[in-house]
TrEMBL record:
Record-given protein name: Copper ABC transporter ATP-binding protein
Organismal lineage: Bacteria, Pseudomonadati, Pseudomonadota, Betaproteobacteria, Rhodocyclales
Family annotation (PANTHER family): ABC TRANSPORTER, ATP-BINDING PROTEIN (PTHR43335)
Keyword Flavoprotein: no
Keywords: ATP-binding, Cell membrane, Membrane, Nucleotide-binding, Transport
Length: 312
């Protein structure tokens, strides 16, 4: 499948990946990936289990060497000696963050602060930022999965990183916590922090990232804004129409000979599926019904529809 346009020039990119591959014997975990993420961008990486997301993350962090290709963060190749300084600007939340059950939340952050050689003074404020101030003195053993995840996120924020890599950061979080999490991410983005995030929860990510890459079998199958990917896929749209007296025949008649992929009536509404290119013609046709149209809603294909189109 052709990747969508929209990839910005890699010249000013904070994260630049060119032809990166990682092979484990016959397994091509990552296979010729090109990617450029701009400063201050909130970038999503999605894909099925085993698509290669975590492996690519670890390569971008310089944690595992690439079999082939080049990866540079803030201009420094991850395999070079200059990367040591860049690493200080990076925060990382791994898929399975390792925490010590016997430490309290605050002790945990102090411990990570020491490892990162950053001052411990901000640890209390960080716990507050991720909503764990009330549990700062409790041992991690007593933390719920969501609380552990928040603590992992706090650890990633130690030292005010300029580039954040978050692998499945919302696992275990309840809906309110997910919302709070993205508020924090937007705040960080406004400060110019670059965020790269993986997620399996497409509905969650679709309205929140600036751009995303869909990975499958180690390759980037598509790259762009959610809207650009929708358009590249040319998936049909749905018009949901509520019409006076549930007069569905009037809707059918108004549409006349316009190409309609599907038309369904339920709950007093008519759902009309049309190709994107017919969108404005369908609007115009429905407008002829005047006040007999009581409500109208256009449903874009979800990221899930796009995802299955690109990753199957
Ligand atoms: N150390 C390793 N040795 C051998 N194969 C590996 C290794 N690490 C990853 N793989 C393989 O590489 C492929 C990509 O794995 P990866 O963990 O990057 O996928 P993922 O997209 O992060 O999956 P998930 O969503 O399940 O976390 C898989 O087939 C996996 O089995």
């Amino acid at each position: 499948m052709q990747a969508a346009a929209e990839a910005p020039a890699s010249a000013g990119a904070v994260v630049r990946v060119r032809g990166a591959s990682k092979h484990y014997g016959a397994v091509r975990a990552v296979d010729g990936v090109d990617l450029a993420v701009q400063r201050g961008e909130l970038f999503g990486l999605i894909g099925h289990n085993g698509a290669g997301k975590s492996t690519l993350f670890k390569m971008m962090l310089g944690l595992i060497p690439a079999t082939a290709g080049e990866i540079a963060i803030d201009g420094a190749p991850v395999s070079g000696s200059g990367f040591r300084a860049v690493r200080r600007k990076i925060g990382y939340l791994p898929e399975n963050v390792v925490l010590y059950d016997n430490l309290t939340g605050l002790e945990t952050l102090h411990f990570f602060a020491k490892l990162k050689s950053v001052p411990a003074a901000g640890c209390g404020a960080l716990l507050e930022r991720v909503g764990l101030a009330h549990a700062a003195g409790r041992r991690v053993r007593e933390y719920s999965k969501g609380m552990r995840q928040r603590l992992g996120f706090a650890q990633a924020l130690l030292g005010r990183p300029q580039i954040l890599f978050l692998d499945e950061p919302t696992t275990g979080l309840d809906p309110e916590a997910i919302r709070e999490f993205y508020v924090i991410l937007r705040g960080l983005r406004a400060e110019g922090v670059t965020v790269i995030i993986t997620s399996h929860i497409l509905a969650e990510i679709q309205e929140r990232v600036d751009r995303l890459a869909i990975m499958a079998a180690g390759k980037v199958q598509a790259l762009g804004t959610v809207q650009a990917l929708r358009e590249a896929m040319d998936l049909p749209l749905w018009f949901d129409v509520r019409v006076a007296d549930s007069d569905f025949t009037a809707v059918r008649d108004a549409l006349g000979s316009l190409p309609v992929a599907a038309i369904e009536a339920h709950d007093g509404r008519v759902a009309v599926q049309v190709r994107r290119e017919s969108k404005m013609a369908v609007f115009a046709a429905l407008a002829t019904l005047g006040e007999r149209v009581l409500d109208l809603h256009v449903r874009e294909p979800s990221l899930e529809d796009v995802f299955f189109g690109f990753s199957d």
